[in-house]
Amino acid sequence: MTDTLPPCPECSSAYTYQVDALLICPECAHERAAGEAAAGAKEVRDSVGNLLADGDTVTVIKDLKLKGTSSVIKVGTKVRGIRLVEGDHDIDCKVPGVGPIGLKSQFVKKVAG
């Protein structure tokens, strides 16, 4: 099971847990509202500037060659249920026919709806 709760903004602990409407850190005892954005949280935007969120559906806007293989993710490939993460590749997802992979937000476009 993958934990989708954000890390603690005070101590960066990955062990936060939710009780009712609060997120609680067991390491530093910091409490915050579940809907409250982390201080300094980075907004992730797609290639045309749409704000992305966990669970969105996106399409790939250019052919992406996978390193170490001869596989290519074709333009127009629809990816459902993305998860935003920190780092160079800011989207974790499962691409149909490829499997779990990290994508850069600059190569995707959010699907309306």
From TrEMBL:
In what residue span(s) does the Protein YjdM N-terminal domain sit? 4-31
Domain Protein YjdM C-terminal positions: 44-111
Q: Which Gene3D superfamilies match?
A: 2.20.25.10, SH3 Domains
Q: Which InterPro entries match?
A: YjdM, YjdM_C, YjdM_N
> Pfam family example for this protein?
Zn_Ribbon_YjdM
Source domain of life: Bacteria
Which SUPFAM superfamilies does its entry note?
A: Prokaryotic SH3-related domain, Zinc beta-ribbon
Q: Tell me which NCBIfam families the record gives.
A: phnA
Give the UniProt family note.
Answer: Belongs to the YjdM family.
The protein's name is Alkylphosphonate utilization protein
Organism, by scientific name, is: Leisingera aquaemixtae
